[in-house]
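Researcher: Structure for this, please.
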Amino acid sequence: MGEPLDLGPTPTDVADPDSLWWRHERLHRRVLRNPAALLPLYTGERDEVERRWLASPPAPAEAFAEADRLLADWSAAVAAARVPDVRPLRVRRFWRRRDRIAHLS
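Model: Predicted structure, token format:
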């Protein structure tokens, strides 16, 4: 990695759309609601990108730009999916509290 990349601000407990970590965390928290139904919405494409990158690694800036576009697409697909939250009630309560702290709800 010859050139530094701006990954946004350091994450805190409050969601920040400029933070790469928080953009991914938003997807992660949504998928946790029903992984069996939501992971298949993007894992095939994710696996293909990983295979392509392993065979021919892109430049870091190019990889992060593509990953950001993919993350946005996958996040939109997961957000649009109408699936039940299958987590136990205590787990849903835990994540509701964490989401309030993060200003996600």
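Researcher: Any notable elements?
Model: The two ends are 37 Å apart (CA to CA). The helical segments are 20-31, 35-38, 43-55, 60-80, 89-101.
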